[in-house]
Amino acid sequence: MSKTQVNMTVNGNAVSALAEPRTLLIHFLREEMNLTGAHIGCETSHCGACTVDLNGKSVKSCTVFVGQAQGAEITTIEGIAQEDGTLHPVQEAFREHHGLQCGFCTPGMITRAWRLLQENPKPTEEEIRYGISGNLCRCTGYQNIVTAIQAAAADLSIKEAAE
Amino acid sequence: MNAHTSADTERVEKLQGLGSSRRRVEDARFTQGKGNYVDDIKLPGMLFGDFVRSPYGHARIKSIDKKAALAVPGVVAVLTAEDLKPLNLHYMPTLAGDVQAVLADEKVLFQNQEVAFVVAENRYVAADAVDLVEVEYDELPALVDAFRAMDGNAPLLRDDIKDKKEGAHGPRRHHNHIFHWEEGDEASVNRALADAEVTVEELISYQRVHPCPLETCGCVASMDKVNGKLTLWGTFQAPHAVRTVASLITNIPEHNIRIVSPDIGGGFGNKVGVYPGYICAAVASIVTGVPIKWVEDRIENLTATAFARDYHMTGRLAAKRDGTITGLHCHVLADHGAFDACADPTKFPAGFFNICTGSYDIPVAYVGVDGVYTNKAPGGVAYRCSFRVTEAAYLIERMIDVLARKLDMDPAELRLKNLIRKEQFPYTSALGWEYDSGDYHTAMNKALEAVDYKTLRNEQARNRAAFDRGETRSLMGIGIAHFTEIVGAGPIKNCDILGLGMFDSCEIRIHPTGSATARLGTISQGQGHATTFAQILATEIGIPADDITLEEGDTDTAPYGLGTYGSRSTPVAGAATAMAGRKIRAKAQMIAAYLLEVHEGDLEWDVDRFQVKGNPEAHKTMKEIAFSAYNQAIPGLEPGLEAVSYYDPPNMTYPFGAYVCVVDIDVDTGVTDIRSFYALDDCGTRINPMIIEGQVHGGLTEALAIAMGQEISYDEIGNVQGGNLMDFFLPTAVETPFWQTDHTTTPSPHHPIGAKGVGESPNVGGVPAFSNAVNDAFAHKGLTHTQMPHDHWRVWKTAQRLGLTG
Ligand code: FES
Ligand code: FES
Questions:
Q1: What rounded mean pLDDT belongs to chain B?
Q2: Which of A16, B113, B415, B621 lies 20 to 30 Å (CA to CA) from residue B25?
Q3: Which residue has the higher pLDDT, B23 or B526?
Q4: pLDDT class for B1, splitting at 50, 70, 90?
Q5: Which chain A residue's Cα is nearest to B74?
Q6: Which chain B residues are within 8 Å of A145, Cβ to Cβ?
């Protein structure tokens, strides 16, 4: 199948590559960009393991053709920590509150939580539960994930107040 | 030991040993997307494999035409059973002593069965070619109702073994019969039933479900033709067993096979078995000489690899009018699908189902299990439980409630009356298990108090009255379960898989500068072994957990072990770890004695050092001892500080717990709201409370999924339903309630550190607690039992059947 040129920004870096138009964004990121953080858990838009951020919105990259990401700004789990390696407060909170076990849902879950806290910096527990309901986790029962997101929200608001 | 000073406490805390809620070492990589799962592996020249699968539940294959598929640019090969036959690989042995078709041989026996394996340069081309392989079928009548499997006119499913009268577990009564297995004294149970003041009987079905870990199964096979070495990276819960099986079926010597389990995205039993994809990828790599990746998609996962349960259990209880249970009789019709691929220890075709007397002192019991073939996917794995223990717990916990109804007795009171008493431990059950330790009444009473059980029942009485007056359309249900698990398989004397004893192992190397590397025969799938096993060692050898690296999952480096499932890692490999640590300490003591110029017996261990009794100032820390082990010639001692331990457990361990669930059911919609869930677990010594709680949350959520919605069913012609995430229920954060956890601690007397294992208890106890709550909501309207899953539709149907809907 013939390939077309795709250009986008991934984690702040300009990316330009040839890809078959039918290539799914998740495969492009994982196989062409070697960004294997986001995972594939279903390919049917149910599990959210493939969640990345596209132009400021959480998307399930298993259901986005690479062509639809033409010119987009994309952030994946690999782009969430600071450049010097310091973890983002959401990542820190997942570790501190045991918000992950096998880690397979974690990149998608953290990428979603990171966006959720920008959409709604002070979510209630219910808002968190609804806010991450597109992301399935088979291991944790969500309780510690919710706690971690609450803790990250508190941490971020303290940091913001200090700035 | 000297009185503890704050310096001592500090030393203990620095170790982050047993009992510490140490944060997980795994998380740094997982939170940054730096895990290494099988689909992340990329090797030069790697090709992709994908399956052509059967659209029919039962059909004869008339022809397979590969031409069009092979003509697609980028397609390298299309394998069928005909290609595997010369290698004798078209069938593979299953863990249960049966064989399973790797690629369908003349017939397909379940929908989505593997028919051909396409190898291509990438997954897109492989998928294109899969569509172009033309298979012609002659459809045959499908057998989907297990109760019809042994009818006189039931279709013959397994042509390959039709003349085999003797199965792996004794005689077969019918061409679709797999085995009959029984335990207990049926004559005395029948007497107890005949003499009983009260009896109850109920058919309790535990539907077919699937472990559905978030990561599906997959592998990368790479044959190095120059060195003759086959490496398989894959989602394997038991890498060493896979190596042995791979060697037996391929005739490649075992030292030339390397099995690596990288990070695993959840297993829950799904990743214990050996699947056709692994074999096909290995064969394709051997044939092509390049690495082959195979990763199943979600639909393939749900429909072809490893279902769980599908047990139809008829239970009968005999009792006195005061509630004393006098006997249990149970017959199970076990639907094993098209091939018997159950993952049970070899001598236990029904796993440890005979733990079905549960937490109760039942004097006589009998179980009989008949396994049958149907046109469904093979499997029969232990989905987050020890072998068939969830089924057993569900049976007895439901039966207790059924009996309570009949006696008009409170289900909590009936349980308290029959629970095994503390002083009866070690307790030998009527079906032959020796329960190691327990304090059931304390657990049950603590649970009832914590939820304020009396108040709940009073509220329920008011709710029922209000419902009858037409003031509410909601009914309240209270579900109780007191379960006993049996985990830690197991003693070599009665547990093996394909002849391999179910021991486990740990090897420790202490490095000269006082840090350590430990390797185990198990493999974590999210349980946090790298964190917790280092904690066990920290306490045993006095090296901070942060200075201990733990490795698992690579058969080239790890000592032989039987892997991680059935909550066996802590009971078996955890024990091996402690024992290997003790060997290290014993040698360290000799070294310390030499260094301090005293007799070994004059030394005592204190946190991280050996000190001279009565003179703690004279001591050598483990760090100092480690260095000496490598830099001094010590008379009578070999240099170095290493140990290995293979642990054959003397007994299983028996974790237990008491759960209470409260639900509110809207009778007009069937919507069931989980108002609260309280879980008290007793898993013996607690290694890392944070991780234990996490395991309980996760297990309860899986129990919620099973009890309230999961089911893989088949229509009458063998089409699978529930084979994708649209139809197969996985709870989101919205449906999942808040879990209230609690514990008691009754150590295992035979385990070196008293730990019992916890990962699977919440699934075992959770399912009956949910189901009992739903049944309880309708109990006053005459309901004794309604089948799972309790999804909204079924609950509404129940309400309708009872005449409660508007
Ligand atoms: S893989 Fe994209 S939602 Fe599951
Ligand atoms: S941590 Fe395993 S799926 Fe979420």
A1: 94
A2: B621
A3: B23
A4: very low
A5: A1
A6: 733
